[in-house]
């Protein structure tokens, strides 16, 4: 079981040298080095060169490293990949993915270079067509994860932001269902009001309860909240341990079901309990 955590996934504009350095010390599980929407048009050539050099010079430790290039329908996408390939990127995050054909196109470009032989692909799920094609996208070659692009989705669907995110719910769930069906990581969209900790906490709790593995973030001040909420709580760890013990006892008695705190515990609950403990151990180490 791959226990690499994705509780916090921080966007960093590829043009911001100071932020690129700062991230080597930030408590983020993963980084999205952005060449797309966070970089102004006139800055794009400088940003892609700076990022390729930075990725080869700096040590980001165990943090997962995703590079978001521009899509190949723009004038920048092909140049982004040409320059970033020299840094042997661990993963490319492709924006505006509408269909599996977009992923297959990127996979062919990665196949053609020795430096990107092991590069995985992540997809931004941020268009109505992309959401409707979520399963074929999740099934495409080299796929490792989905990032929900809730700002672009809101724009393309003409929906209004609400704190309960009800207008986004179907899209979030369709993305999640496809990701989980194919064993991919699924990371929730950003919370734009980056100085509003209470609002972020509520949205992280909602995303966690839905089944997301973590939250994309835009500012370091958001890291602690996401790291806390997407980690197993001490109550969950305690319950998992007691469920395993209760189920072991029941098994010894020749019974297939245990009862703990007035609730049944079956084999499938033990699978979840073991995943919670494995995740807690992975985070502790
Ligand atoms: C939002 C910001 C523009 C705010 O920047 P700023 O005003 O400079 O913040 P602070 O002064 O509070 O910064 C304090 C220090 O933290 C560093 N910093 C800030 N942001 C980051 C970051 N993202 N990663 C690493 N470090 C960061 C500053 O450099 C300061 O450091 P120091 O000077 O050493 O103390 C800014 O936070 C920002 O640009 N955030 C990223 C925005 C972004 O990436 N947007 C695009 C992604 S969201 C998206 O595209 C959504 C999706 O596609 C969709 O459709 O939904
Ligand atoms: Mg977007």
From TrEMBL:
<dbReference type="InterPro" id="IPR011206">
    <property type="entry name" value="Citrate_lyase_beta/mcl1/mcl2"/>
</dbReference>
<comment type="similarity">
    <text>Belongs to the HpcH/HpaI aldolase family.</text>
</comment>
<keyword id="KW-0479">Metal-binding</keyword>
<dbReference type="InterPro" id="IPR040442">
    <property type="entry name" value="Pyrv_kinase-like_dom_sf"/>
</dbReference>
<protein>
    <submittedName>
        <fullName>CoA ester lyase</fullName>
    </submittedName>
</protein>
<keyword id="KW-0456">Lyase</keyword>
<dbReference type="GO" id="GO:0016829">
    <property type="term" value="F:lyase activity"/>
</dbReference>
<keyword id="KW-0460">Magnesium</keyword>
<dbReference type="InterPro" id="IPR005000">
    <property type="entry name" value="Aldolase/citrate-lyase_domain"/>
</dbReference>
<dbReference type="InterPro" id="IPR015813">
    <property type="entry name" value="Pyrv/PenolPyrv_kinase-like_dom"/>
</dbReference>
<feature type="domain" description="HpcH/HpaI aldolase/citrate lyase">
    <location>
        <begin position="7"/>
        <end position="220"/>
    </location>
</feature>
<dbReference type="Pfam" id="PF03328">
    <property type="entry name" value="HpcH_HpaI"/>
</dbReference>
